[in-house]
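Take a record.
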Amino acid sequence: MLIKESDFKDKVLDHIAEDMCVAARTAPKTKGVDNVVVAIAKGDTISELAKKMMEIREKQGGSESFSRDAGNLPQASHVVLVGTKLGVLNINACGHCGYKDCESKPKESVCAFNTIDLGIALGSALSVAADHRVDNRIMNSIGKAAVELGLLGPDVKMAMGIPLSVTGKNPFFDRK
């Protein structure tokens, strides 16, 4: 019997993407408050993300990173989405968000500690991809599209996307 890589690659990436989500979920969170939301996009959802990225590019008047990333996205069979909800963590007078205290911060503004937790969750997820030598890259453009599409829920206002592929050369670097 001969089993070719093409026979199992998608199944292996399913498991790695799932492990990345678990790593993001279990990453340390400020005060133990978990505002992180994780999901995996595949198939038509990846196409929807690429289409929304092009729409965002048009609205922004020429941001080349969105069109470049949208053109690059079809090379991913999986995209791990990691976002954060808006909830404040009530660490009053920290000032990291630019406001005097949590009560002064507008509700639609993301708490600085949530962005820190998002970064830690992303690092944890990426470590799983790195451990498995899976092609990946963090992309803000994917996250913005996921937020605008509401893929992670109405409370998520900041997200990042991590496209995954298994190729001879990482398609998400050295792009034109």
Observations:
- The mean pLDDT is 91.
- The CA atoms of residues 36 and 84 lie 5 Å apart.
